[in-house]
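ERR on first pass: missing label on line 2. Operator R.T. fixed the label and resubmitted. Corrected input:
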Amino acid sequence: MTGKERIARRIAREFRDGFYVNLGIGLPTMIAEYVPAGIDVMFQSENGMLGVGGPPTDDCADPDLINAGKQPVTELPGCSFFASEESFAMIRGGHMDMSILGAMQVDENGNLANWTIPGKMVKGMGGAMDLVAGARRVIVAMEHQTKDGTSRILKECTLPLTGQRVVHDIVTELCWIRVSAEGLVLTEVADGLDAAEVQARTEARLLVSPDLRVMTVNASA
Amino acid sequence: MNKVVQTAYEAVADIASGSTVMLGGFGLCGIPENLIAALVERRVTGLHTISNNMGVDGFGMGLMLEAGMIASHVGSYVGENRRLEALVLRKELDLTLIPQGTLAERIRAGGAGIPAFYVPTGLGTVVAEGKETRKIGDRTYVLEHSLNADVALIKAWKGDRLGNLVYRKTARNFNPAMATAAKLTVAEIEELVEPGELNPDHVVTPGIYVNRVVVGAAYRKPIESKFIQSGGAA
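pass 2 clean. output:
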């Protein structure tokens, strides 16, 4: 199981029957594959769809039916289509139970950066700023460190922010971190790791929860 | 009443260089590809464009960018458009990035006679810099102003000669809002039907917002993720 798959499988365990969830581009999109059996989750795509289904076979791909990552998708029974202003009314209006998105940096205050590296990269915020401002719960799903081993969980973000004090939870292949008023609380660590090892790979200071548990992932589905 | 014009070229014939133009679509989905091709053929320049994305290298608004027609752009996402990213990093194109929901709502407000409104989006980030903020209840909001344009080029699925429009699946996106927010709205459609054929309960854009209707001559509709993977050959 890859690190990304571990993250996706762990977050899928947070879903409850009846949730409306927006999944960001990239790693978060993978989570849709691991929804626990017996639970109905409606995925929203901010380009204007509720009830997003999995990818079609190649010969059934419809250019008028894509997700926010511009990948072809399918319709689930009971899906609906709507315009962008309505899509973001439901996002901004607090109707989404959960928004799960990737990040380049997160910090001790729950700040998040994921849309630009000044002078180097201009990706654009797309719908990320609206999602973090409007969803009831914001979960960041990302690999713990960059490819060169730098921590992405910092004392303070150095990149331009996507949102200020917006993140509720951070999930990586190593751990689950809850953002609290006191700081970042380590609540789960991957099997075989301990809190000290996670802290060694993290720039931000981690408070260890008295109920620290092993991060179990959903093996089935 | 008959808003139908015969060709895309005719539909954009009087769009002046230097105009502010809204273009519907999300990525390459639901873009007015025939109207874009006609604009490129006309070589209109110095355009101020408003669109969520700017196509990709080799298709959609990417063609306008390659033809040097765009002076400034307002959107929410650059993504995989390498040419756009390079132009912005070299400061050769004036790009304003706006959160996608704020962009949609500013356009909606522009068409609805609402000059400004407050949103929570972007508070504490660069998009709120220099903007008025106000505490309402226990939360602070950012004042955002409406957006309008000289021209909106939009794409619908079916329409009639009165300008009533319906859309197909996720190709709706920014098109209905943009239809309301410009002095001149040109709708490109795939199929022209007789008035009365569209179920009035299903009409998304009532004809009052639309000035011209043109049936697109041909549709390529590439799927963006595949188009990029294949290097533009899909």
